[in-house]
Structures are given as C-alpha cells and as structure tokens.
Specification:
about 325 residues; about 5% strand; 11 helices; mainly alpha; disordered C terminus; elongated
Length: about 325
C-alpha cells in the first residue's frame, strides 16, 4: 500500500510531489547562494523563497525557449545561429501564395524579388540580436548577485550599441512599387509577404531599445536597487527574445522568396521572356520546358546537383558568345 489517504485525489498527489520538488530545489539554491556570499566575506542575504523560485523558473524558461527555437531552426552550432538564411534556403514553398504564381512571371521578376529579400540585412541583424541576448543574460547574472558596477555599465553600453545597430538594420524604407507597371503585381505580393514579418520585428526592436534607454539606463545611473534593475533587465530580455523570434519569422519569409525565385523544376517556361533576366542559380530538371531558342544555352550553362539527382542549376548566365580556344 502506498500509505496515501483514500480521499487524496490524483491531482492533489501531483501537487504535493511538485511542492516537494520545488522545496528541495529552493533549499539547494539557498545553500548555493549562502556559500557564494560567504566565500566573498559578506553576510548571507535572506531572500524571498517565492522570488527565488520565480527567478529560477524565469531563467529556465528563457533557456528552454532558446533551445526550442534553436531546434526548430535546425541550428547545430553557434555559427548557424547567426546565419538563418543558409539553413532555411531550401524551405519548400508548398502551399505558399507566391509559389502559385505563373512561372514566366516569377522568373521575369526573379532578380527584383531576390534583391528585395536580401535588402533586409539579416546576415548582420541576426548576430546583433544574438549578441544582445548574450549580454542581457550577463547583466542579469551580475545584478542577481549584487555585482552592479563597472561590468554592468560596460555591458549595458555594448547592449545599447547592438540595439542601435539592430534598429538601423530594421529601418528599411519600403520599396515603391506604386509607379511600376501592372505586371509587377507579383513584386508587390513579394514585398507584402516580407513586410508582414518585417513590421513586427521593427516594433520589437524599437520596444527593446526604448526600454533600455528610458528605464534601465536611468535606473542604473540613479543608483536604484539591484533588484529593481534586475527586474527591468529581465523584461528587456523578454523583449529581445521576442525580437529574436520575429527575426526568425522574417528569415523564413526571406527563405520562401528565395526558394520560389530559384525553383523552376518541372515548370513550363515557353512563354517566358528571358532576355535580360537573371538566370544564374535557377534550379530545373528534364521536365522544365524552356523557350526553344534558349534551351541549348541553358544546358551549356548548367551543372547537375549532386545532392538532388536529376536536378540541374544554372551556374553562369547563359550566353551564345563562343570564345576561341586557339592562342
């Protein structure tokens, strides 16, 4: 027999088990904090158990959230954390509205669509946000153990610089397509698909930057308690985490535009106007139908992809100019 009274429900037993687990965790943490403070020669500081547990859970929540984002993005090392476009470049666009556009239209405006996708500066933005996340965690750790001072102010200055850089990178002026001909409706659709994720990212970065400049910096300058500063820094960490998540959303949108602009496997391009069109990087296969006069040029300029049997990629801009091999 378990010795548990019959009137105790299963849910109550779970609550009791959780309570015992939290109590044990709190006791271990209290010992660790006391040992750390005693080793520094200071008197142990009594802490509110609920506040201590709350801090533990908040830290665990942020760490778990970062791990989940990393796993979903298929990031296997810190370098890939800073270059999301690389591992999202092959994202299949199945069911995406841009993928349903006519192939001749997609290839005609391919160069403009790729330039729009690349104009968001994600290769520079992601490292800036990754650095901001790391520095914020450092500031929280310093404030949590009452180590405010030169290290905190130095870290906050670096954080302000990174958020200024992120704000600059997200303030991309929208592409003016109003004066373009009606056929550029596809480019407007591309821009709208990107702006849907770019605008929330801009707001998130702006909110984090304003919280840092208007609340945390003045609070540190006026010698508020470390606990107050720590609480504001935790709010800032949440804002930066939101910006990081929004940046990943934009990265996926950029990757979809890149995939739609490069993938023409099995498409009918006989009606496409290819003169002056950017073609290097286009993927195609034996089922892709090219304009008759372009097919031999496309074949000469293409190479097979080892990782995708039967698929070729145009490795150079097709040309009918022949270079003599004679000296």
């Amino acid at each position: 027999m378990s010795g548990v009274p019959a009137h105790v429900t299963r849910g109550q037993r779970c609550d009791q088990a959780l309570g015992r687990l939290l109590a044990a965790a709190h006791q271990d943490l209290a010992i660790a904090v006391q040992d750390r403070l005693s080793a520094r020669g200071g008197a142990p500081e009594l802490r509110d158990p609920d506040l201590t547990i709350g801090r533990m859970l908040a830290t665990a929540h942020r760490a778990l959230g970062a791990s989940v984002l990393q796993r979903l993005a298929h990031q296997s090392d810190p370098e890939r954390e800073q270059s999301p476009i690389e591992y999202l470049g092959a994202l299949p666009p199945h069911g995406h509205p841009l993928a349903d556009r006519l192939a001749p239209v997609r290839i005609k405006y391919r160069g403009d669509a790729l330039r729009a996708a690349q104009s968001y500066g994600l290769r520079d933005l992601m490292p800036a946000l990754a650095g901001a996340r790391r520095i914020t965690e450092t500031v929280i750790s310093l404030l949590e153990f009452d180590e405010a001072g030169t290290k905190v102010h130095s870290s906050v200055r670096k954080l302000a610089h990174l958020l200024d850089q992120a704000r600059h990178l997200t303030e991309r002026p929208p592409t003016d397509t109003a004066a373009d001909p009606p056929a550029s409706d596809y480019l407007r659709a591309v821009e709208e698909s990107l702006q849907t994720h770019a605008v929330p990212l801009q707001r998130a970065v702006h909110g984090a930057r304003e919280l840092l400049r208007e609340e945390l910096v003045p609070m540190l300058a006026e010698f508020h308690s470390d606990m107050d500063s720590e609480m504001v820094t935790r709010d800032l960490a949440d804002d930066i985490e939101q910006a990081w998540s929004r940046a990943h959303d934009l990265s996926r949108a950029v990757a979809i535009v890149q995939t739609v602009s490069n993938d023409f496997v099995g498409d009918d391009l006989r009606q496409a106007k290819l003169e002056g069109t950017l073609l290097a990087g286009v993927r195609w296969n034996a089922s892709t139908v090219w304009p008759e006069e372009w097919e031999p040029l496309i074949r000469r300029a293409s190479t097979p992809l080892e990782e995708e049997p039967g698929v070729l990629v145009i490795s150079a801009e097709p040309s009918n100019t022949m270079v003599s091999a004679d000296p």
